[in-house]
Design a protein that fits this description.
With 254 residues, this protein is of the alpha/beta class. The chain has one domain: Collagenase (Catalytic Domain) (3-Layer(aba) Sandwich). Helix content is 26%, strand content 19%. The chain is built from seven helices and nine strands. The strands form three sheets. Strands 4-3-5-7-6 form a five-stranded mixed sheet, sandwiched between helices. A hairpin with a 2-residue loop joins strand 6 and strand 7.
Length: 254
Amino acid sequence: MTLVIFVFTKSVAIEGKKIVDAKVFHNRNLGASARELLNDAVYKSLTVEIQYMKGFKPRQETINQLSLFLNKYLNKPKGINIVLNEIGRRKNTPLTTDSVVAIEIANRTQFVKDDNIALYILFTNSRHVDKRILGTAYRNTSAVIYGKAIRENSNARGKLTRQELETAVLLHETGHLLGLVNKGSRAGSGHIDYDYPDHCTNKKCLMYHATEIKKLSSVLIKGFVPVLDSNCVADLLANGGKQQFLFKPFVKAF
């Protein structure tokens, strides 16, 4: 495992009576902020910063679906705000996690502050070094969607549209940030996929492992977005999330 060290500009927030250093806060393991994101004990609002490289701006319906997803499961009485901004393109070469971290360090502007918590999501103009990977959640408040990989695996005959695919991958990585599966939001039932850690065994669940790699045929259906199954929803509720809905394998969204 590669050790990644963030070097963020100094920023602090007040957590109860404790001062929180943003540099330390955002440099934690995946799942470490799951409960902070789900409940409102400390953080009453959320800012999602989406940065994208030219030509890889996520579709508006993708943003709408992210907003619906977050508002469905997160207790944030002061609201959830999604901000988008374009950053410079990089040389079109495959990215490692270290490369993605370097981009975040150079460009991220939203950090934990007072009672507001922040997420960072990057849409790149290139792919991961492992061509199978479409997206990755790599720290407690950080995720990346590999735009070139999304483009190469969508909009062809028999494949999902770019909008459908980027939506599914974005929501899947957001699920990881919320601690799924058993990665900050403890699994209360036997739905952990031990062959693919941090994923769900239900092939119709958003958190099934194939959602973030090229092997998509058994998970995604054109015109639909997969949702969390009842087990994953229960895990979020137990960790401070809100509401519960009857499980339907897919939501007609496009």
